[in-house]
Amino acid sequence: MGSVEVDISTREKYSAERAKRLATTNFAKRLEVSKDPSVRDLLQDPWADYDALAKEAGFDPKDLVLVDNAGGWGGTCYWNRYPGLQCDVEGYCYLPLLEESGFVPQNRYSHGEEIRRNAEHIAAKFGLQGMFCTSLVAANWNESGGRWDVTLRRQLGPAHEELNAAFTISTQFLITATGPLSSMSIPALPGLDDFRQEKKVFHAARWDYDYTGGSPTAPHMPKLRDKVVGIVGTAATAVQAVPELAKWAKHLYVFQRTPTYVGPHEDSRTTPALWNTVTKGGAPGWQDERIENLNLFFTDDAEVAPDMNLVQDERSRYPSLSAVWGSRRAACLGPEMAADHTEWMLQREAPHAARLRKFINQTVKDPATAEKLTPWYPGWCKRPAFNNAYLQAFNLPNVTLVDTDGQGVQTYTRHGVVVGAGESAREYALDCLVLATGFELSGSGSNPLASSGASCRGRRGAGPGR
């Protein structure tokens, strides 16, 4: 890629950006959505068919029952159905059990609905049993019975109050897969209640198609034609949702705390010829081999060469991301080697960062907007994105980037949101606000159920940390 080094000017910009981010006063304040009654309605599941599930209130115990507070299969793509949703990791690796289930993705990078269909396909093919709209309350080891007593609570909405109750089951094996990113992150800023009385607010993980129009399969949003829309966030979700909102909103304000590295997206349809190449003609173990190959490049393994890369996309060619995912290269590093290793990583990353910054500046027509969308930090500090419409959206007359200089939105009012403070404060009047603010990182290594909020007691009543 040529010789590119991290020069003094770039280092100074990196340092300034770090200082700005650390000086943010309101970013750490987050609402505990599941515990705060004033915003708990934002958790309402818009996809669950409560009536159908109520008819199946009982369950037939099988060897395996999967419990989920969602109303169906799909995991993160059950909840996330925002317009533009698409996996940014190659679907041939990301979608599980393709070889075993016979599922063929339509695109190289699967859209959200296809990811959910794949989960449903797996459940149907293997006869998996699901207990939906059900949350884990507690898990206690029963010494005398040699089993787990698991307390669950089912919630089928106000129309089925008679079925909304806690109950306890006994199981020989308890597998926890609650994950660390399951609770919506919402900025705890003043005035949210007032704003919600007048205007529409929803989180991207609970997209309100009744308000916007359209559906997850056809995300046309004609109801936004006369609406001024704001979206808070410029990370992975917003990068995909902004271009879709820009097509329909009367005007779209994008509120940015810090920019994201955005590169070109190398998507394509899955033709028979491409599928034959990917699966190596249907050779057994093709997906495991491809996943392992991708992992070697994600972790910047010292034993692989560029021409060994089976995926060959922007993400797999970005070695410095191993700073997040880990690498065998760093297995023997001690504290005294940290500075030299960081310098080595910066130099390895420099050509990739420079190329993406150049791409941003060539794509966005207005120089001032392009500069605000240009990241000045190492690529491993914030997950890079790949999209062929996000940067282009800022060339449209109905899209405005509101850069908050690292501080984020300050307050809500009855009419909109406020950016800045003192004499520089400005209110942006909105009809609708989309919170593309991600999920809270929750959980603790000492408690396998921490992210679910459930208690866990093992042998002799031992809890986390004992």
TrEMBL record:
<dbReference type="InterPro" id="IPR036188">
    <property type="entry name" value="FAD/NAD-bd_sf"/>
</dbReference>
<protein>
    <submittedName>
        <fullName>Uncharacterized protein</fullName>
    </submittedName>
</protein>
<comment type="similarity">
    <text>Belongs to the FAD-binding monooxygenase family.</text>
</comment>
<feature type="region of interest" description="Disordered">
    <location>
        <begin position="445"/>
        <end position="466"/>
    </location>
</feature>
<dbReference type="InterPro" id="IPR050775">
    <property type="entry name" value="FAD-binding_Monooxygenases"/>
</dbReference>
<keyword id="KW-0285">Flavoprotein</keyword>
<keyword id="KW-0521">NADP</keyword>
<keyword id="KW-0560">Oxidoreductase</keyword>
<keyword id="KW-0274">FAD</keyword>
